[in-house]
Amino acid sequence: MCSHLSITGGKLAILADIHGNLWALEAVLADLETRQVHTLLNLGDTLYGPLAPTETARRLMALNLIHIQGNEDRLIVQPPAEPARSATLRYVLKELPGECLSWLASHPRTQVVANTLFACHGTPGSDSTYLLEEVSPDGVHLSAPQTIAERLAGVSQSLIACGHSHCPNVFSLPDGKTIVNPGSVGLPAYSDDLPHFHKMETGSPHARYALVEPSAQGWQVEHIAVPYAWEQAAAAAAANGRRDWAGWLSSGRA
């Protein structure tokens, strides 16, 4: 699917991994009001979490954003046969009304913006694979340029936006492509068991997003870290049975 919005001569705001964190989202939107932003792009994993999925959905539904799905959006719109194994998924499915589910289901897995930017949550072919990182039994490492280029096979756009890892980054490939991960609006750290146990940490609880604009020298990227009432988000996570999320939200450490 292709959006015909132009980003030539204007700033593009890239958001990702909101995870139902309404408090963080509101802070980012307030920060964006102070900036001259032409286009807003959301890279998915928008509602999954023990926080405020319905309120987050309705806030976003009222705005003019380009959206794609992430792996945990897919989990919501195509739940497994036994969602009872995940208390958080049960909570989200119970909370979300039909119109919010339909809105989430309408988002494509990838998106091309103005024939210039390719947006994916993980990689073009997998919403659950990190584009820039490699997970091994020894931990998380930045992938080799050749590996990243192979993951982007068939993508011709000069700017690629990805999320999923929650870690802000900008990466340049030898062929001139620029890859931007804006970090996470709503969850600054987490741990995961797949493909090996690993932690993703930003080191602070700020809500993160990125601003991108073209320049004569190439793509200019600015990573923004916004303070917000993260203790309120952490309290909501704890009240909904996720003390691990509460710790991640209040510290940025896993």
Outline of this structure?
With 254 residues, this protein is α/β, with parallel strands linked by helices. The protein is built from eight helices and 15 strands.
Could you please describe the fold and organization of this structure?
It is globular and about 50 Å long. By secondary structure, it is of the alpha/beta class. Helix 3 packs across helix 5 (98-105) and helix 7 runs antiparallel to helix 8. The protein is built from 8 helices and 15 strands. The protein has a 6-stranded mixed sheet with strand order 1-5-6-9-11-10, with no helix packed on it.
Largest sheet: 6 strands, mixed
Q: Number of helical runs?
A: 8
The termini sit apart by 36 Å
Q: Biggest sheet: strands side by side, in what order? A: 1-5-6-9-11-10
Question: What order do the SSEs take from the amino end to the carboxyl end, as H and E?
Answer: EEHEHEHHHEEEEHEEEEEEEHH
Q: Mean pLDDT, nearest integer?
A: 94
Query: Pairing-aware structural class of the strands and helices?
Result: alpha/beta
Cα-atom radius of gyration: 17 Å
Strand content: 25-35%
Tell me the overall shape: globular
Helix content: 25-40%
